[in-house]
Amino acid sequence: MNSVRILHTADLHIGAGCSYLSAAAPVRRKEILKTFENIISLANESKVDLLLIAGDLFDSNKVEADLVDGVFSALDKLENAKAVIALGNHDPYTADSPFLNRKLNPYTYILSPTDCVLNFDNLGCRVYGASFDGVYCEGANRFAITPPDDDLVNIMVIHGEARSDLGGNYRSITPEFVRYSGMDYIALGHIHKMSDVQYLGTTALAYCGCPEGQGFDESGEKGVYIGTISKGKADLESVKVARRTHYCLDIDVTDCDDIERKIKEEISETGENFAENYFKITLIGKIKDNIKIDTAGLLASLSVFVAFIKIIDKTVADVDYNILKEEKTLKGYFTALMLEKIETASDSEKEKYILALEKGLESFSGEVKFDED
Fold first, then answer.
1. What one-character DSSP code corresponds to residue 67?
2. Are 134 and 94 in contact (CB under 8 A)?
3. pLDDT digits (tens, 9 = 90+) for 160-175
């Protein structure tokens, strides 16, 4: 039985601004290029037949020349595999595409914007797919080309969103599309979270996710899929390739006498390579009304402990509202009023009034803390 060994990746977004990292952004941009170079090395070491890139290799078609050169230099280092690239909504097949203005090596293939197929008879497989030709791309319930009924393995590389209908702007991949595709595996891009390999009939499909997190909304380990595709079967494993991992930690500092030490302890528990990673720390819990958390001081101390850290203070004052409401002060009157509203509010409104009480009391003590959410 024919089988083909693949490496499936997508959504590197090389050239993305990484502005959330401030001064560390330029280094991070180079690191993501380095991750792509490592993926090429992994493809060589794993002796894959096909490197499948399911869109958004670049963050745009206006990426700096040195990063573009770096991508093509990396592709030139593929030893045995053929690279098949479907362009996505960030790097579409338009007149300014870096792929159109560059002579490609003979084993790198860019899928056209119309449904197409590449025949690799020597590998016993075909690769189907299509690229975006703009920022938005309509989906369809059927792929235009139906594979023949033979022993060759059929693979599709496509950037799009798996959904139940064609209502999206990013090439909707519907169950009907999958069911009638005739594919053995559909390598998907666009969604940055890795999915399990799923089957619809005899067709396997998966999102590999992004190899590197693009922000704190993409926390956790990131990687690629590597494995073997045969008729009706995808035997794939996820392999971590990320240079750095984003972590979002909520740390309760109620009754804590050394906040810096507690943050360090919780960061250390994320793994032995914690110092290489990025952390968003949200301080929660109750603190005494007369204590203020020095987030600037914490950042100064902890910035040498990990690669990057941001700290958000969402603690609230530990106040006995029943005592406070009896005070013959503006603060006491405000507390009594808000407690009355909380008592009579519906369940859906209570949380709003509780937050208003907390923020209002903060304003009596000084500046209200900025809430980025």
1. H
2. yes
3. 999 999 989 999 999 9
